[in-house]
């Protein structure tokens, strides 16, 4: 008669009994501590403790330890948040299930869950043999769980990511979008004068790919937790080192990198909280938060010219022998922005020396005209037009022809 295939728990228990004969406790616990991922929160660990099924009555996540100690001893080590409690259904940060509350066993990361499990194993009042069987079974179940399908459900406050390129800088905001759902928001659902995660679920984050200024104050490149302190008349946007956390439970003012004040204003109704970039130029963007009938914003500026010049100078040092385009483009940028004109002229000369073209000749003509050397600029513009018309295919020489006409007036 063909035997039925054992389930994950049966496999793990059998695996544990076999390995327990050869492993000692210290080696086992060391291996568990090296396991840096967390598995779904359910009875997978506690189901191996004698009497655990009886202890889980009324405990939907199975977080109670039915061995020597209850979960009250374990929950503080599972995460820095307060012990799990029934969620406040009116909280906009509540995401519709127990899993949206501060993470417990299934939400722990970076080895925290494993460390806690090893503590439980040490504390459980069971024989040495049962301790090893239990611990190794947990290890096997953690592996076996990868083969088990997980049920994903939509979040009532869905995740969103918005990005804006400003000059050469990427500004990216990752957040969750709670809805109004007919509730009073400001001063009620979101209290005044308290640190808020600026959304729901995980703390909102903002990432800058280069150094920036926020409302005129410098901020280095990196990812920050974007917290807010809403007020009736004034808000504070808080850029904090604690970017990876649930809500604002782990928020520490000592980790603040920057705070800027902002004035809220009344806007048309917005059901879901939204971040946007309503006004963007080559060197600045406005970052706006809108929810319900309120909007509040701050301005991010970048030093585009400084960034381009630094990159151009670096590029000139490693220029390939046949690369005439890079110095020509760098010179043209300076001509467009009326910066570093003398240095840009040397870059244009370098490009011309590699390969004379309509583009680099006209670029140098523009630089000379900008420094008041119109006679030289006129001569180079004529040369540029000649090269452009002789090129295959011909270049569009209209810009040079218009400039030439203007300089000859």
Strand order, largest beta sheet: 1-2-3-6-7-8
Rounded mean pLDDT is 77
Low-confidence stretches: 1-6, 11-15, 18-23, 25-90, 96-118, 120-126
Number of domains: 3
Bin the helical content.
25-40%
Strand content: 15-25%
Structural class: alpha+beta
Task: Tell me the major beta sheet.
Answer: 6 strands, antiparallel
Total E-strand runs: 10
Alpha-carbon distance between the two ends:
104 Å
Number of separate helices: 12
Radius of gyration: 32 Å
Topology as a string of helices (H) and strands (E): HHHHHHEEEEEEEEEEHHHHHH
| Shape category | elongated
Structure characterization notes:
This protein is of the alpha+beta class. It has helices at residues 8-20, 25-34, 52-55, 75-78, 112-123, 128-144, 304-317, 325-337, 341-354, 358-370, 374-390, 398-407, and strands at residues 159-166, 169-176, 205-208, 212-214, 217-219, 222-229, 235-240, 256-262, 265-276, 284-301. The protein is 34% helix and 19% strand. Helix 10 (358-370) packs antiparallel against helix 11. The longest helix is centred in the first third of the chain and has 17 residues, at 128-144. It folds into three domains: 8-147, no CATH class; 159-301, no CATH class; 304-407, Serine Threonine Protein Phosphatase 5, Tetratricopeptide repeat (Alpha Horseshoe), CATH 1.25.40. The strands form two sheets. A six-stranded antiparallel sheet has the order 1-2-3-6-7-8, with no helix packed on it. A four-stranded antiparallel sheet has the order 5-4-10-9, with no helix packed on it.
